[in-house]
Design brief:
- By secondary structure, the chain is α+β, with helices and mostly antiparallel strands.
- A hairpin with a 5-residue loop joins strand 6 and strand 7 (177-183).
- The protein is elongated and about 80 Å long.
- The protein is built from 3 helices and 8 strands, in the order ββααββββββα.
- Among the domains are: 63-81 and 139-218, no CATH class; 84-132, no CATH class.
- The strands form 2 sheets. It has a 5-stranded antiparallel sheet with strand order 1-2-3-4-5, covered by helices on one side. Strands 6-7-8 form a 3-stranded antiparallel sheet.
């Protein structure tokens, strides 16, 4: 006969969580200071920027000198574009505008006196010429590199072909200065620098900076 083994039942575990008493929280009184808002008595007129101690006006008007990633010195200056095509454009603009205004004066304007029409046309022609005669202003770029001279980012003159000496400035008859020198077997005028008025000394600064750049970069042996 099989032997019966009596097994005792396991005790049931109560699933109710024990009741623990939580500690009483004490409230802290935080004393915050009152933030005072500054009150400024602003003057009716704002102070100019020049009154700021760190303000420094830029005396280089329409002029700049920069270092390039290729190891060169780039100089940018303002100049007049005196090419002949601008003169032709001035004549065309003056003729077209004056002719159109003259046709309006003699055919459409309600002016009965014929002496007033030519006087008005003369005044309009003078005014149009004063408008179109203003010279065209451009920015010139000249870069000195250890092995060459680059003008306007396109014309490259290599230092190894300037065997008779570096380019030098010479005065021109109209008060401008011309940078010229022997390049290979030819005398070349590289660029012309002009002054805008009697108080403009940008040409003198340009000459000094360009010669200083030549001394700094061309006295060292170039790396090819």
């Amino acid at each position: 006969m099989p032997r019966h083994v009596s097994l005792t039942r396991s005790h049931r575990i109560s699933r109710a969580a024990p009741d623990f008493q939580r500690p009483a929280l004490t409230r802290r009184a935080v004393a915050r200071s009152k933030i005072s808002v500054p009150v400024r008595n602003a003057s009716p007129t704002a102070s100019p920027a020049s009154s700021w101690p760190g303000f420094q006006p830029d005396p280089y008007v329409d002029y700049g000198r920069f270092l390039t990633p290729e190891g060169g010195i780039l100089i940018i200056h303002k100049d007049h574009d005196l090419r002949f095509r601008h003169t032709l454009w001035r004549l065309f603009a003056w003729t077209a505008s004056t002719a159109g205004e003259g046709w309006f004066l003699f055919h459409q304007a309600p002016i009965q006196n014929w002496w007033i029409k030519p006087a008005c046309l003369l005044a309009v022609a003078i005014l149009n010429w004063l408008i179109v005669r203003k010279p065209v202003e451009v920015y010139r770029k000249v870069e000195i590199r250890p092995d060459c001279l680059i003008i306007e980012g396109a014309d490259i003159f290599w230092l190894r072909f300037m065997e008779c000496g570096w380019p030098t400035f010479r005065p021109n008859g109209d008060g401008s200065r011309i940078l010229g020198g022997i390049y290979g077997t030819r005398f070349v005028e590289f660029l012309t620098i002009r002054s805008f008025d009697e108080f403009d000394r940008g040409a003198d600064v340009f000459v000094s900076h360009l010669q200083d750049a030549m001394q700094q970069l061309w006295t060292r042996p170039p790396t090819y």
